[in-house]
Amino acid sequence: MSQHAPVSARAWAGAVFAVFIVNGFGAATWMSRIPAMRDQLDVPVSQVGILLAAVSGGAILGLLTASPVVRRFGGRLTILVALSAMGLTLALTGLATTVLQSFPLAVLGMGLIGFTAANSDIAMNIEGAEAERAVGRSLMPWFHGSWSLGTIGAGVLGSAAAFLAVPVAVHFAVAGAALIAVAFLAARSLPAATGADSAHAEPLTRRERLAIWRDPRTLLIGVLVLGMAFAEGSSNDWLALALIDERGFEHGTAALMFTTFAVSMTLGRLIGAPLIDRLGRVPMLIGSALLAIVGLLLVMLVPVAWVTVAGVVIWGLGASLGFPVGMSAAADDPRTAPTRVAVVSVVGYSAFLVGPPVLGFIGEHIGLLSAYWITLGLIVLAAIAAPAAREPARRRGAATPPLLDDPRIAPHPSTGSLPAIPTTGSSSDGTPPSGA
Question: Is the separation of the CB atoms in 95 and 35 below 8 Å?
């Protein structure tokens, strides 16, 4: 296929959905087996916190390097290489845990998983924001909903693996191979230069990039993402262990609660996307934060199984919109999107760097459920920062207009409707997406 063969907005959006799915699948594969990894490595809760901190530390390093990588090579190549490396590293981490039973190697593997996932994360959010503009409606919550679908699939697989006592090495190797295969297929329908300096007539100067790191609106969006990422991540990291140790849940049942949380987040994102177009970002963000607070309080304070399940559902619904809406807000300007998304991600992902060891340390002394008061406080801060994500005036009260003025995009030759995007991948029919 020619280097400049077009791909329709529909194919572009579909490929982004697939990328989000496999990224979520890769992340949740290890999340769902944290109890098994703890038992196999025979380490206390505090050292589990080190494993989780290694993921976060690798992610922070990946976030710092992702922006220049995307500007240099574009989102497509960044996503392909990062997801392939993530799948390979996942398999190697399974070997380090189950076969070698080496805590240092497991820490290294988790750090590399975080690094590769972060590079993919920046690139796929930039791709998502551009595809959202090309289609002309809010899609970012749905993209992140597809990430949650990936976590659901991984959670179901992880629950089955836990119930059947499948070795972590086998589980991770199969998951890693699937991740790599889907990444190669999805990359064929991604534009080659999304986010790259070569896609803009006037690339950002070094001074402009540094100024973004001091921009108040960008930093407030980062606070919003930090609080809601903590609401999401503290469930991913500690919910299964908390329910096992403090509520008496079996390993398989606790893993199923992780899946329940992921399902709730997915539903929240599917429902939230059209509501954002109708009500606006800020009201939806504040309402979501209130739901997360209610759900978290139920899990923390009411030691009744069905109330815990209800709390997990409400918590998941509430935590669903903060991250995707924050990413969409950070990418409002395509020219500055790689740097702004990186800044917001660094601030937001600090929740994953600081959160695991802090919650683990405090949880070892007062209990993991009591440690969730920290999460509650950060959700309140996210609600306070929500107005920073308000839509630009040109987008209020209407769906995002298609990107008809982008020099890379040509209208469909027969209809003049939604754009076709230059790519190195396969082409499609150029028709508008249905149901997106």
Answer: no
